[in-house]
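Researcher: Let's run the pair from yesterday's discussion. Sequence first, then tokens, for each.
Model: Starting with the first of the pair.
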Amino acid sequence: MALCTMKRTLLAGLLLVAGVLTSGVTECRAGEGPRITQLAALDGGRVLVLTTEKGGVYLAQGQGWRRAGGAPELFVHRAAASRGGRVHMATSQGLYVFRDGVWDKAAAGAFAGFFPDADGAQALLHFWGLGLHILDARGMTQESLQLLREASAREEALAREEEELRRQMALLPRGDAATLDEKRAVMRVYQQWQDVQRRLEEAAGQARAGEPRPVMEGLPDGAFVSGAARRGDGWVAGVFGHGTFALSADRRRWEPLGHGLPGPWVLAVEAAPWGAVYAGLYGAGLHVLAPGATVWERVDGVPGDSTVQGVSFGRDGQVLVATREHGALFSPDGGRTWPGPGGGPEGNVQGVAVGDDGSLWAGLWEGGLFVSTDGGTTWRPCERLEY
């Protein structure tokens, strides 16, 4: 498929998802604020808040949320937090990483998503028009990025040196007419050129070490990947309109993994700390794939007609679900029990997050961020602070 056609297909998928998520929402009572698209839990009880604004990246903690200083002035498609305090943001103008208070552009290109595993060791990258790629996410730290930059700089310098040696060899006399000294000069330049070639290959290999590798075989053409999660040694991905797929440990081909799902309209795929993978569907509730299982099962505590747009997990078994129709739904025990809805934010909940301090967060498409510090019994609006 031509690149421009793939881009149009992906854009159509994104617009379709956006239309699904914003139609028929209830009246919001959260007050004014930017439209929230995603939440991600950070360390120290903080939460990253993404909005539809250009440069709309916020940090929330306690009772307030404010713009994240130094964030790139770009529209962010998806963010992901991993261990070590790193945050990756997929944008149309590159992949950005945030660590130790510093934002850095990790890779050039147009990105629709970034899906790391729990340890931050590997990740799937979703390129606009180019599909899914896998990479060693440990190569996206500030230190390794600097090493990659240095390798790239060495590669460029050696390429220039090689070109200069080629020019010198072309100018030197050769053949029977050349003197002995001239032939020795040719040999010296040739040996230098061989050494530069060897070092150039080494530098090029180091520069390519952090590049992602495509993994698209088995997925539908123009697949819009709505979510992906690590499962054992492989991966599970949700493709909007096509269901879910599994990538085995050898990372050669995706295979359909949709048994038990009532439809193909997958909006979210997330892995829980206890090894289960959850899939949220449009109008069909929440489903779980237990460790080692091959058939999805519906989570009874989430209404079967719910549009599930996000799932977040806590280290003590908490499950927090974002729905369009029923607000934020919470289970304190890994999905075994679900206290009835009520008292939570009213509206189209787009993003949820469970803080490492046990706090619960819900962000609304209509605008407004809510927090609960008593296990979802009561919720209160979080104040948007100015600089």
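Model: Moving on to the second of the pair.
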Amino acid sequence: MAPRTLQQKLAILSDAAKYDASCASSGTTRRDSRAGGIGSTEGMGICHAYTPDGRCISLLKILMTNFCIYDCAYCINRVSSTVERARFTPDEVVTLTLEFYRRNMIEGLFLSSGIIRSPDDTMSQMVRIARTLRVNHGFRGYIHLKTIPDASADLVAQAGLFADRLSVNIELPQDASIRELAPEKRPETIRAAMADVRLSREAAKDRTHTGKRPPRFAPAGQSTQMIVGADGTTDRDILRTSANLYSGYDLKRVYYSAFSPIPDASAALPLIKPPLMREHRLYQADWLMRFYGFEAEEIGAAHPSGNLDLAIDPKLAWALANRAQFPVDVARATRDMLLRVPGFGTKTVTRILAARRNGPVRYADLLRMGAIMSKARAFVTLPDWHPGALTDSAGLRARFAPQPEQLQLL
């Protein structure tokens, strides 16, 4: 077989990287200059990610290789898979990153890899790539490295000196599932790596006895990813795991990726993928835990099954299950309680608290502040509005459920 060109490798290894949800493309194949014209919203290896301040940036998102010595049942790149294989050398990754960057096509690199020979050998090559970019070429763009499970703590420590963000995927929300479907991986080792990153980040904030700060360590923090629907874990248990990760390891984000059936899959895996709406609801619930003061237990308890309601968003589902706490008097409620009102976002609540100091807040004021009153009206009282029996009405949920659609027979 003739050696693959760099472009052929890029096509294979950028496609293999699409399963990592830590940065997903926001482009569309409807506008693609490969069929003619100028410019493109999507191309091999380029994805779009969002920074904490809301900026959209373009990243080169690739695997160093999709060869792997592990046989994780849910992974398309497992050793027993018949997928087409390719491998970049460290120098090729450096070249690609610099050439894309010089052409103003990307602002950084998102690099992951299958495991070749050993975790340490793979991790050392990824560190070499980041070091070469930073030290030899003065690269100041964003670098996100996926750390390799079971790689030595020393290599992970080196990676944090050159990468803006580190991440290690826990893959599945329960240890028992990881042991069954990814027998070569150990959940304890993954969590130990997360703990090492947190400790290194904290140590980098402390000044030495001379007053100097140590070198920055993964200044953009760390993240992880969980596959949803590959096992029987409920949404409540998934959110419990996420809450523990946020509190125990100071993660910036937990990403959720709906399981996608793969060729020649294990009999232990489901035959169909979960609805994408489940992934969406988990992100909404995650947002409630991080910014609205909700606990995983109370979000999961809104439905007897422990799974999130796919028809309505998690905050509305919680409010409907806890109607005794409503309606809320907007003039007197605390910030924490206002954040629990469906249709009120964090900015809306901040505006309400500021406006209350100047006088009563009325229905029209809430509309101007950005409140979604079609959701909130059943859960609040105002000088010019009271929901009456609406809050406790038996048909309240039906008001928010999607309207039925007539399906075509042919």
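Researcher: Give me one sentence on the second I can quote.
Model: The CA atoms of residues 397 and 409 lie 29 Å apart.
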